[in-house]
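Dataset card, provenance and construction

Sequences and ligand SMILES were collected as paired inputs. For each pair, a complete structure of the chain with the small molecule in place was predicted and serialized as structure tokens. The example below shows a pair involving flavin mononucleotide. Curators did not alter the output after generation; any descriptive sentences attached to a record were derived from the structure itself.
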Amino acid sequence: MSREQVGDLAELPIALRPDAPGLFLALAPMDGVTDGSYREVLTAMFGGRSGISVCVSEFVRVLRQPVTEAVFLRHCPELARGGSTRAGVPVFVQLLGSDPKWMAEAGARAAALGAPGVDLNFGCPAKTVNNSDGGATLLKQPCRVEQVTRAVRAAVPASVPVTVKVRVGWDDAAPMVDIAMAAEQGGATWLTIHGRTRTQLYKPPVDWKAIGRAREAVSMPVVANGDLFSLDALRECGQVSGCSAFMIGRGAMGRPELFVQARGCFERASLSRADMQQLLLRYVAQLLADGAGAHATLGRLKQWLRMGGLLRADMAQWFDAIKRLQTLAEAKATLLASQ
Ligand SMILES: Cc1cc2nc3c(=O)[nH]c(=O)nc-3n(C[C@H](O)[C@H](O)[C@H](O)COP(=O)(O)O)c2cc1C
């Protein structure tokens, strides 16, 4: 994956904000998946011209106490290097909580540590999180989305974006417009919408139309998210929602070339088997270099292969071949042996 294989990124330049000229493509936060090591290898692809505009960290849970610097650095090691990956892609710190005071305190702290943006998670569907009044629970009362957003916005310097990430509603998409307006009233810089309800979890269908209704109701930029697994999906989502800025999560695991492809800078249909293999081995090396143990690294590798396998047959085969292996050494050998 050399720089030359990508061609000229000038065709659809990288927008650092969804309302800037060019194409905005964010890498979605995925708890347990998109750690600092993953962000590092993904943004380093194609000679550091991965096509990714912005990454968002896995969520930092905010309860009724201050979040320590160590916790921020664990979730977002990029804070120790100015808030960007080594390839220079900014990493927003995502906060998950419901208490305006403590969320504001955490937002201010993240910004003081150098976060280039603070993202607020009002979409998490996990039962444990929802039962302790976090994530998508707040979608039931849009005024609470507004309160938390307003408190964080007031605590974070104006130069640092405060962004909001939601689903279309709790059990139906009827409150979508109210939720979007609440985020805007609270002062969100932009809004990312995963086109599913909380009760849907990750089941189909994704509702890009509801994202479009929200986009029409607000004047801040709206970033569309959900099932963007291919160029066709990006095009269709753009048409249905009217959005021209997107966030890609699971698609990046099987189609990490999607970001450059969407910019018109990748001629082939997909990464070759050898390129994918190299990328996975680089991820393993990065995890170990970042201090992950061999067992944890094996778990992360299996996770990437399992998710990527939904989009690529070779990854599904690799997953089958390593899923029962107990050691990282065996898994690496299996991956290397399969040319
Ligand atoms: C394993 C997993 C973990 C996730 N963790 C987070 C998270 O920490 N914060 C968040 O806002 N969304 C999280 N999400 C949701 C994704 O950011 C995204 O909204 C969702 O996967 C839909 O986009 P996609 O179809 O491109 O994957 C997670 C999704 C998955 C599958």
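Derived descriptions for this record:
Confidence is low (pLDDT under 50) at residues 1-9.
Strands lie at 24-27, 54-61, 91-96, 118-122, 162-169, 191-197, 222-225, 245-248.
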